[in-house]
Amino acid sequence: MKYSYPGEFNPDKLKPTNIDRLSTSLVPAKSKLLELGCATGFMSKYFTQVKQCQVFGVEIDPEMAKIAAKSCENILIGDLDQPQTWSKIQAVSPFDVVFASAIIEHLKDPWNTLQLIKQVLKPQGVLIITTSNIAHWRMRLNLTLGRWQYQDYGTLDNTHLRFFTYDTFQQAVIQAGFIIEHIAIDPAGGIKYFNWLARHFPNFYAHQIVIKARC
């Protein structure tokens, strides 16, 4: 899941193309927001204090959840792959916004999770969701060289169960019944002199992807 964040989380201090800045900027102020995989609540705190949202966090790690509880209206401890967790979520629904940053790739059945997310949103509710792109140019280069090594963090995080491209990520969201309103990419990976190409070849240059979609 998302882990901790060094210091105070302030997206305004991040690069304009940073995935956390891109995703948090899409959250409407004063929303009733469900944050899936809130970790220590570093984003929850930002949503609460700066965006003035009413934040309900979900976290699988009890120790992280204790920390996150300080920044949330309510904190639910549970595994998003388990129906018991969704029963807890439904009890405090519906929500204006579901925020799912770097979560979908950790789940056994992300397609079913997207359906469950839709069920806890208000009519015209908003989903803001991010994931990494397995078709990023660095991944392609490593595969060409015969490399596929899991890591502690990143696209090949050893807890990732599912992988998406720029296209299949959109397909998953659309198939769940959402209408995509906005999509943006974080082209991290040392291509600052070629960023203009990212607009034309997002599946090649996107390191991470964020989608804003509506029910």
Task: Explain how this protein is built.
By secondary structure, the chain is of the alpha/beta class. Helices cover 31% and strands 22% of the residues. It has a seven-stranded mixed sheet, with helices on both faces. Helix 3 links the parallel strand 2 and strand 3. The longest helix is centred in the middle third of the chain and has 10 residues, at 110-119. The radius of gyration is 17 Å and the shape is globular.
Provide the descriptors you would attach to this structure in a database record.
215 residues, globular, alpha/beta, 7-stranded mixed β-sheet
Uncertain stretches of 5 or more adjacent residues: none
Number of strands: 7
Proportion of residues in β-strands: 15-25%
Strand order of the largest sheet: 3-2-1-4-5-7-6
The description of the largest β-sheet is: 7 strands, mixed
- Mean pLDDT over all positions: 93
Classify the secondary structure makeup into a structural class: alpha/beta
The shape, in one word, is: globular
Helix content bin: 25-40%
Count of alpha/pi helices: 9
Order of helices and strands: HEHEHEHEHEHHEHHE
Our Rg estimate from Cα atoms comes to 17 Å
| Distance between the ends | 25 Å
